[in-house]
């Protein structure tokens, strides 16, 4: 079982995540071998699969496979007091009967804590139907966005396994380093992140990339590669997030041919051309600047339907992560019902895609052999 919330403090240094036990000041490295378990961000207002399985059984299965972390996406209304979930088989999950969505989220976090599993909270959607372009919308104002985060932090930061806040999923309409407070994601993270840290000072702030930045406007010839939503961290070199650097982890989203139709997937040199692209888009943030990188999402069908090139892409990406000692990730997804990627689980919500899992397992095993670095 992990330390009590008031006894743990998460921080970063030299490209790694750390946890300090405030009782004895012992420090340990934190490596996140995670999965995305989605559903709270949808109109079911709860993680998916509870119509087919018991929720605790799925947590134990994740743990048995070597995963030690879960990214929990949510939307504004799933973390409101009084919101009731749907699509739960209460014969399989009798202890969830009568609980609100937020009650169930807290129950999952508490059980994950018992199992020694970290949780990253991800504000995935403002409404619960689509990924909006910014951190505010006509439906959810910036102030409502901030207040929602503060309410979530007040309730859930008492759990020591909650490592932090992924401030906003894939702000694809935002810019970076433009100085426009209406669109500049870096400025928004500083504003929102500082408020979150006032309530949960022991948390980390996870920062996704954008789709555009000042650099794309001024220097397209220098940055010819297309991008995925959440992948673009090219402007961090010029404009890092202005929060205390020890509280920030950068968290790009990276996808292959099953999800995005990028021209470089058709390059004759594919997949050998990919490492240079990953390094330019986000890898340099750790390699050259020393900030930690935690991959917030990557995944695909791995040859089980979809684009046959996806298997080679995922193999090469895991190779690259191992070579660059990037040992934090959340695979998309645990769920099999992700339309373009599938999941770790097959459609029966029970059995695992063995070959897809074994590729991820290579990364877990390689990272587990690294020395327990001290800051």
Describe this structure in words.
It is a single chain. The chain is an alpha/beta fold and 375 residues long. The protein folds into 2 domains: 1-30, no CATH class; 31-368, TIM Barrel, CATH 3.20.20.80. 27% of the residues lie in helices and 14% in strands. The protein has 8 helices and 11 strands. It has helices at 55-64, 101-114, 142-156, 185-199, 214-218, 274-287, 310-323, 354-368, and strands at residues 8-13, 16-21, 27-30, 33-36, 69-75, 118-125, 162-166, 204-207, 248-250, 295-298, 329-331. The strands form 2 sheets. Strands 9-8-7-6-5-4-11-10 form an 8-stranded parallel sheet, with helices on one face. Strand 8, helix 5 (214-218) and strand 9 form a beta-alpha-beta unit. Helix 3 (142-156) runs parallel beside helix 4 (185-199) and helix 7 (310-323) packs parallel to helix 8. The longest helix is centred in the middle third of the chain and has 15 residues, at 142-156. The radius of gyration is 19 Å and the shape is globular. Residues 217-222 have low confidence and may be disordered.
């Amino acid at each position: 079982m992990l330390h009590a919330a008031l006894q743990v403090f998460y921080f970063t240094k030299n490209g790694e995540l750390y946890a300090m036990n405030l009782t004895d000041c012992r420090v340990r490295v934190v490596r996140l071998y995670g999965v995305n378990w989605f559903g709270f961000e949808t109109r079911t207002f709860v993680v998916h699969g509870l119509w087919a399985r018991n929720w605790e059984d799925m947590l134990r299965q994740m743990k048995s496979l070597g995963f030690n972390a879960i990214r929990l996406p949510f939307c504004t209304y799933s973390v409101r007091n009084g919101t009731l979930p749907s699509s739960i088989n209460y014969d399989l999950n009798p202890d969830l009967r009568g609980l609100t969505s937020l009650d169930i989220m807290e129950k999952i976090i508490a059980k994950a804590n018992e199992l020694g599993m970290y949780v990253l909270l991800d504000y995935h959607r403002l409404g619960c139907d689509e990924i909006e372009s910014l951190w505010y919308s006509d439906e959810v104002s910036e102030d409502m966005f901030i207040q929602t985060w503060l309410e979530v932090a007040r309730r859930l930061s008492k759990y020591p396994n909650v490592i932090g806040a992924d401030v906003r999923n894939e702000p694809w309409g935002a810019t970076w380093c433009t100085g426009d407070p209406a669109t500049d994601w870096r400025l928004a993270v500083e504003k929102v992140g500082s408020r979150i840290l006032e309530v949960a000072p022991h948390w980390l702030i996870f920062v996704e990339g954008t789709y555009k930045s000042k650099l794309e406007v001024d220097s397209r010839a220098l940055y010819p590669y297309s991008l995925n939503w959440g992948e673009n961290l090219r402007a961090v070199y010029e404009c890092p997030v202005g929060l205390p650097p020890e509280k920030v982890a950068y968290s790009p989203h990276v996808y292959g041919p099953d999800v995005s139709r990028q021209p470089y997937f058709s390059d004759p040199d594919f997949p050998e051309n990919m490492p240079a692209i990953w390094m330019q888009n986000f890898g340099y943030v750790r390699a050259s600047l020393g900030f930690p990188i935690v991959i917030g999402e990557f995944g695909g069908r791995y040859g089980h339907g979809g684009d046959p090139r996806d298997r080679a892409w995922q193999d090469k990406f895991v190779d690259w992560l191992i070579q660059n000692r990037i040992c934090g990730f959340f695979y998309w997804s645990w769920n099999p019902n992700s339309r373009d990627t599938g999941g770790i689980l097959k459609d029966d919500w029970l059995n695992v895609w063995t070959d897809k899992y074994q590729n991820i397992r290579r990364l877990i095993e390689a990272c587990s052999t690294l020395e327990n670095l001290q800051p």
